[in-house]
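Sequence in, structure out.
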Amino acid sequence: MKYLFKKTILFALIVALGVASLPFVSVAAQGTNDPTPPPYGQVKTDRLERAWARQLRLYERMGKTDDFVAKVQKLLERASANGKDVSGMQSALDEFVTAVEDAKPIYESAQSIIDSHTGFDANGKVTDPKQAKEKIKALREKMQEIKTAMKGTGEALREAIKDFREANPHPVKTPTP
């Protein structure tokens, strides 16, 4: 029996050492169809395409200020008809509209950058990375000019709307039994 016990212990130790020597981490090699990174110093084209698309969305959103102003003006008229004080929001809206008019020529000049879209094809895919990078930089600079021309009036209008909503919360509707 003593002999059987020693053999069992010896067998358990060998199995434990065998299991301990097995790797617990899997390793995968890069496949042949995986894209290779571009050479050092070159920008990946997908990043340029995403940046271009993001700037186009921002430009498009900036072009919808007339709709935004109309919605805010409608809100002001409805609130004024209900006897609410809308003077702070109205002055912030007036300043915003004036700033939009001042920034409109800059906005329209950015359209020429978008129309030429050198470095990109009509679908927004990069055709020349160097030109694409320059085009993104030029459009970003125009967007910064627009932001500067707006003089923070968008943020001031947002704050005026927020203050108005805090001062005039919607009444809580109670369910009828």
